[in-house]
Predict the 3D structure of the following.
Amino acid sequence: MAKIARAEAERALLIDPELGRAHTTLAVTLYSQGRDWDAAERAFLRAIELSPGDATVHHWYAIYLVARGENEKALAEIRRARALDPLSLVINAEVMACDLKIGIGSIVPHIMAGFGELSVPITEDLQMQLAARYEDYGGATGSTFNPKVAVRWQATPWMALRGSAGSTFRGPPDPQLVTSSVTSLQSILGVFRAVDIYGNPNLQPEEADTYTAGVVVRRPRRPSGDQLGTAA
C-alpha cells in the first residue's frame, strides 16, 4: 500500500507540483517506508507552505515529529491542527496522546526493587513462608518495605489450615502525576466535548494491610480394585 501511495503522490505532483496533500502523502511514505527522514521533512515543510490551513497536513507532520522524538514540536503541530479542525475526534485524541507522552516523559521515575522469599519447614505438618519486598520510587513517592508471612498446618491427612498477613504498597500511576493538562473527549449530555484534565503531582501512595485465612479439604479416595466373586 505504501508503494502505491507513493507512486500516486508522485504522479499527482507531476501534474500539479503545488498540491499540499500530495506532498503530505509523499512525506508519510518517505519516512514510514524508507526511513528517509530528511526528504520527509522537506516534503512536510513544503506541504505546510502550500496548505498552511490544512489540519491534516499539520496532523501528519506531528506524527512524524513524534517518531523522531521531537515531542515539543509535535505538540505544537497537533495543537495547530486542532485549532484548524476542533471537531476532529482523531486529532483531539492525538493531542491527548502528545500531552501524555510529554508530561510523563518529564517525570518517569527510576524505580529500584528487590524481593526475597524463604520457606521454613518447622515440622513435617507445619510450614512457614517468609517474604519481603523493597521498592524505591524516588521523588515524592519515596520507598517502601513490605513483609509477608504465611503459615500452613496439615491438621489431618485430608484437611489443612492456612493463613497469611502482610502489607502492600501502590504508587500513583504516572498519568495522574502530570502537571500539565491532558485533553480528553467526554460525552456531556450526549455531545462529545474536549475537556482538560489536570493531574496532581502531590498524590500520595496507597498502603494497606492484608490478611487471609482458609481451609483446604481433600475428599478421601474410594477404594478401587475390590471385586467380589464366586467360583465353582
